[in-house]
Write a structure and sequence with these properties.
It is a single chain. By secondary structure, the chain is an alpha/beta fold. It contains 14 helices and 34 strands. The strands form seven sheets. Strands 15-16-17-18-19-20-22-23 form an eight-stranded parallel beta barrel, surrounded by four helices. Strands 1, 3, 4, 6, 9, 11 and 12 form a seven-stranded mixed beta sheet that branches. The protein is elongated, with a radius of gyration of 33 Å.
Length: about 725
């Protein structure tokens, strides 16, 4: 029995040691090259390079002689697949000697097979001396089994001699203090070699307080001009001034693909939109009626549109028929398109990305001359003088000094030619391997601000390999840093719903509309951190002063049995004030009667409701209705005291709602809200898209309204 126990204990210990060896120890073999190139793959031999092994005391030096200039940096590469497993929290330590006088060498970790995705990329500058490099990896982006990924050395695109030796790559487990390794380079799986600290955060928060807020002073006096002390002041923000926008799929705003939830969420979450694809020249033939649905909606909701884009200067992004035309005809067709779209959508867009990615998409303007680009701006301004004309490009927020310099040079050159460029769009499609720390984002924005143009983040999305919690944390930090920069005038995300997103893993909301952690982070910024909702009380001077985020406000004043509500806008570079007089000789109106009308109905159908109130002083009255779906009426009136009033409303989707109403007199003294009328709207047999189609058809062709009476139209919808 004792022997059996000892044997079982031995098996357990052996099993544990085998298990542990999967996660710690050597990740590669034969790093000393004492067994020639066993376990290694050397690409490019004979075609681009030759190699020899030079003996040293305890190892061999691998010397590469690159005699044929490689077309790609990966043509000459040395790699070996991981020999053991790695977990996300493991600390990895790479040590090697390198002499590379003739060019930089890249160290990478990539997929061991197609598509050869790279998870690590570190450039080692050229050196004529042999240098020992110590690189510590602060965790991995994924858990990897042995053989899934490989360590790679890429020897670039230059002819020359390179020497590498004594390669050691170890998994040290998760308990090691990475700082104790004294590494030359610490590589973070999300930020690479960028140093990521919180030093930027407090100054950013202070800038937000200074540049995104202004003072609002509310003063309350009685009808004799005496200040009123201890008046309850409720300040609620109803609209943001700063644009937080999204790209939208135009086809979801009407027709057979109409998605009411998508449209409602767009209105709930954003105050600016970009039409993702349907304003691009390439898809102009299918632009209508989708763009009409969007522009009808934005006009109704008073939501501005960022126009994207007038000219994306490569044949791939233009109509197929353009390529192959004579140069002068290409030039004329481009200018004609810019003129036509600037004219057609004049007054419907507030910005235009006149040019998109003209650095990497240059074949058309290189053929036609740079004058074509300048003429695009001049033509757009002539035909839509009120739109802000922008240049839009990528790799400007992250650490890409070459692209930043190219854009700065191009924009300055075009402005020098007379092009009315009035804004800069920074796309900001970010992924693992290209994430930028908030601190570096601010530095890059400083650099792009040297153009002295307002800057908009135009296409923000963030991919983090389904690391959802990190995505939410990084989103909050990055957007906070961006929002704090004084040159930033708007932030537009490139979609928000998994069900309609070019990069579904970057969406704020899952397909079933449940928010991801990043969606909750966005909501917290929009509806808590960067929104002003305050309850305060007047002092002896009858005033309250608060620092408020820029936007529109409803201010409710409550004193004894008097309630007065007013509105005010708080705008940049200006302090706002609101002066309210409470007539203490006036009596507020009575609470309106409970609304009377249908307690149930169908979505998409208009219903009528009535109420009445009386005023003790026989003042005229205005009524404000709340429909239970997040929408309010304006103050409707005036009506004589005691007169029955009515309102019409259409609920767009099924649900249970509470309808209520309040009133105010000519001195702005308000009643309390009435008792609510519960409303039940079950699902209509007709689809929401069918109803939307019929409504738009009647709106577009008024004669149909004479053919379909309201009663017959409602009957059509019900049956």
């Amino acid at each position: 029995m004792k022997k059996k126990t000892i044997f079982i204990t031995f098996l357990l210990l052996f099993s544990f040691s085998v298990y542990a060896s999967n996660y710690t120890g050597d990740l590669i073999y034969n790093g000393d090259f004492n067994n020639d190139l066993d376990y290694w793959y050397l690409g490019g031999v004979n075609e681009y390079c030759n190699y020899i092994l030079i003996p040293e005391n305890e190892y061999n030096i691998l010397q590469l002689d690159i005699f044929n200039e490689p077309e790609q940096f990966w043509n000459v590469q040395l790699n070996q697949e991981y020999r053991t497993s790695v977990e996300e929290d493991d600390i990895l330590f790479l040590n090697f000697n390198l002499k590379n006088p003739d060019g930089a060498v890249a160290v990478a970790v990539q997929d061991n097979g197609d598509p050869w995705r790279k998870y690590v990329g570190i450039e080692i500058s050229n050196s004529s001396e042999t240098i020992n490099y110590k690189i510590a990896f602060d965790g991995s982006i994924n858990n990897w089994n042995a053989g899934e990924v490989e360590l790679c050395f890429f020897f670039g695109e230059n002819i020359g001699v390179f020497e590498i030796s004594n390669i050691s790559f170890k998994n040290l487990g998760s308990e090691v203090d990475i700082e104790s390794l004294n590494a030359d380079i610490i590589y973070n799986p999300f930020f690479g070699t960028q140093e990521n600290t919180d030093d930027w955060k407090q100054p950013a928060l202070e800038r937000i307080e200074n540049i995104r807020k202004s003072h609002l002073t509310v003063t309350c006096v009685d009808n004799n001009g005496n200040p009123l002390n201890d008046v309850k002041i409720t300040i609620n923000q109803t609209k943001k001034y700063f644009p937080f926008g999204t790209a939208v799929a135009a086809n979801l705003f009407g027709g057979r693909n109409y998605n009411p939830t998508y449209v409602e969420k767009t209105e709930e979450l954003f105050n600016m939109i970009t039409i993702e694809n349907h304003l691009k020249w390439k898809v102009m033939d299918s632009a209508h009626p989708s763009v009409d649905y969007v522009f009808d909606w934005t006009e109704e909701k008073n939501i501005p549109v960022h126009g994207h884009c007038l000219f994306w200067p490569s044949y791939h992004h233009c109509p197929d028929w353009l390529e192959g035309l004579p140069t002068d005809e290409i030039y004329d067709n481009v200018i004609s398109h810019v003129k036509d779209y600037a004219t057609e959508f004049n007054g419907k867009v507030v910005h235009w990305d006149v040019l998109n990615e003209a650095i990497s998409n240059d074949e058309i303007w290189q053929e036609c001359g740079i004058e074509l680009l300048a003429d695009c701006y001049t033509t757009a301004k002539e035909n839509d003088p009120n739109a802000l004309l922008m240049y839009n490009d990528y790799s400007l927020l992250r650490n890409d000094p070459t692209r930043q310099d190219q854009v700065i040079d191009l924009v300055n050159q075009l402005i020098g030619m007379g092009a009315p460029i009035e804004g800069l769009g920074i796309q900001s499609h970010l992924s693992i391997g290209g994430l930028v720390t908030p601190e570096n984002a601010l530095k890059n924005l400083d650099k792009m601000s040297t153009l002295n143009l307002p800057i908009y983040i135009t296409e923000l999305d963030i991919g983090t390999e389904e690391h959802w919690e990190f995505q939410a944390e990084y989103f909050t930090d990055l957007v906070t840093a961006i929002y704090s920069h004084p040159s930033i005038k708007g932030i537009i995300q490139w979609g928000f719903w998994e069900g309609s997103h070019w990069r579904p893993d970057t969406a704020l909301y899952n397909r079933d509309w449940t928010p991801r952690p990043v969606g909750l982070a966005f909501e917290d910024l929009m509806f808590n951190e960067w929104r002003t909702d305050i309850i305060s009380y007047t002092n002896d001077s009858g005033t309250v002063t608060e620092n408020c985020f820029h936007g529109d406000y409803e201010v409710a004043v409550k004193f004894e049995n008097y309630t007065i509500t007013d509105t005010v806008s708080v705008l940049p570079e200006d302090n706002a004030s609101l002066f309210i007089t409470i007539n203490l000789d006036n009596n507020p109106p009575t609470i309106p009667s409970t609304p009377d009308g249908p307690a149930s109905g169908k979505a998409g159908i208009k219903y009528t409701y009535t109420t009445s109130s009386s005023d003790p002083d026989e003042n005229q009255l205005h009524y404000k209705w709340y429909f239970g779906d997040g929408s309010y009426s304006d103050w409707l009136g005036p009506y004589e005291s005691g007169v029955t009033t009515e309102v019409n409303h259409t609920w767009s989707k099924k649900g249970s709602y509470e309808l209520k109403v309040k009133t105010k007199d000519s001195y702005n003294a308000e009643s309390e809200w009435s008792d609510p009328l519960p409303i039940n709207i079950p699902k209509n047999k007709q689809s929401a898209s069918f109803i939307y189609f019929l409504e738009k058809l009647i709106k577009r062709f008024p004669l149909l309204e004479q053919i379909f009476s309201t009663a017959s139209f409602n009957k059509l919808l019900i049956t």
